[in-house]
Amino acid sequence: ILDLMKPYLVSNNGWKQSEEYKTGLVPTTSNAAFSMKFNKLKDQVQVMNFVVMQSYGDKWAGSKIEVRASVFKDGDGQQAAVEQSLEIEGFHDSQTSESFNFALDLGEDRAV
């Protein structure tokens, strides 16, 4: 998955590709973060979708991910027209690891 992200990845501090049977990223440290940038989109983007695995046990207790999206309209790129965020829990009480879909709606000023 990191190879697919590479053209858009601006920085990666503390995320690695999962070495288990599921494709995805896992944090290697607290406060792990990465940034991506998509330039000159050909289609409008109204919603960003995320598939997040929630798990159980001490390792994941209290874990969460914060997704922040900023949309800069054509121009100088100095001020974001849209800023949205979404917080997703990484832990749940079920005794299984399960994947869930989450959506971040960019609203009326969607990315173009």
Describe the structure.
It is a single chain. It is built from one helix and eight strands. The protein is mainly β and 112 residues long. The strands form four sheets. Strands 1-4 form a two-stranded antiparallel ribbon. A two-stranded antiparallel ribbon has the order 2-3. The chain has a two-stranded antiparallel ribbon with strand order 5-8. The longest helix has 4 residues, at 2-5.
Topology, pairings included?
Blueprint: H1 2-5, E1 9-13, E2 15-17, E3 25-27, E4 33-36, E5 47-54, E6 64-71, E7 82-89, E8 98-105
Antiparallel strand pairs: 1-4, 2-3, 5-8, 6-7
Question: Which features characterize this protein?
Answer:
two-stranded antiparallel ribbon, single chain, 42% strand, mainly beta, 112 residues
Please mark out the parts with pLDDT under 50 across 5 or more consecutive residues, or reply none.
none
Specify the number of helices.
1
Q: Write down the overall mean pLDDT.
A: 86
Shape: globular
Strand ordering within the main sheet: 1-4
Major beta sheet summary: 2 strands, antiparallel
Order of helices and strands: HEEEEEEEE
Residues in β-strands, percent: 35-45%
First and last CA, distance? 24 Å
Report the structural category: mainly beta
Share of helical residues: under 10%
Total strands: 8
C-alpha Rg, in Å? 16 Å
